[in-house]
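As a representative case, we now present a protein record of this kind.
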Amino acid sequence: MIKNVSIAVCLLLMCTMVSAQRSGKKNKKELKIPMTAAYWNPTTDNVSFTTHKSVSAVRSSNEQGFGISLKDVEFADGTIEFDVELLGMGFPGIMFRMDKDTLNGEIYYLRYFGKPDNFKRTTMQYASVQDRVNMWDMTDDYQAAANIKEKGWNHIKLVVHGKQMKVYVNDMQKVALHVPALEGMRDAGSIELTGNVIYANFIVRPDATEDLNPEPGYDATVNDSRYLRNWSVTEPVDFPFGRDMMLGIPRSPGVTIDPVLFDSTAVWKPLKAERRALVNLTRLYGETEQGKRRLTWVKTTISSEKEQLRKLRLGFSDEVWVFINGQPLHIDKNYYGSPGMKEPRGRCSIENTSFQLPLQEGENELLIGVTNYFYGWGVIARLDNAEGLVLQ
């Protein structure tokens, strides 16, 4: 009899959760979700549902990272709270608004690689997931410091409303990370937890969004006319490692682009920079197969009232070949984890590099070959001064 009552209560809670998430009404009901197999599907084979510090919890059975997915719940807006105790080093986190194939959604995670530092900006991060690609290296803006504890529970709270999110870590009165515009492609989806940690005390409050505005917040680049925002782009081609882009020719300047990689008959299509002035090639072309490298070309036009030099700041991932009016100008690489990776630590940022851009009077074509082999793909470009120029 007791067993039947328990099953009935379990089914009632699950039905309430689904109804609360899918109903068009605002429902502020608090849903306390036990960390048990009745509510969570393992996505790896090393999941151990257990009791820890007198509460139901989940952890790895072999000290390796694990994953679980919340059953029968589609999360859109609201509050998510949970406790996490750090064990092995890594990236414990939560994915939400994920589609059924886990190709697209949002992710928030901690970074734990030794003694926590309250001022270390890379302690935690938000990133979108686009075609299975965690866009962490394209979202340097969405990192922050946090006061996390090596021992005992860390309490995490996410408030999500439309395009915005606020995250609290241990201190529920102070926002630790504010994301003014979630960059994923979905407005609802599943919830998953990952990492070699212990999770417990999981709570969902559907539609409990506090005072958070659902509309996108301020974009710090929006009023800056120096950014290059209007581009044209070609379809990507395979570009294996070890292959050179340039061919030698018996005249000045003595090199030209390999016509196999830059076909004069290529079809160009317009591409506008997104928020943060990011030319997001991952959103357009998706994931690059692991171990492979792809190349695409982007170009824009700059009209100058006179011959002059301007400084161009360029953020990029992973490699660029820059040409001005058909002539080679700048080659650079941003390999994460290598001694030569660009600041900030191999991520795409306007801080990556800068160089002089020689402009002739009239129209100038800026052409950039961009490769991808590792996580996100794109560029950000800003001139030092746009006076006397007309940007495409």
Remarks:
- DSSP finds two helices and 30 strands in the chain.
- The radius of gyration is 24 Å.
- The mean pLDDT is 92.
- Residues 349 and 391 are 21 Å apart (CA to CA).
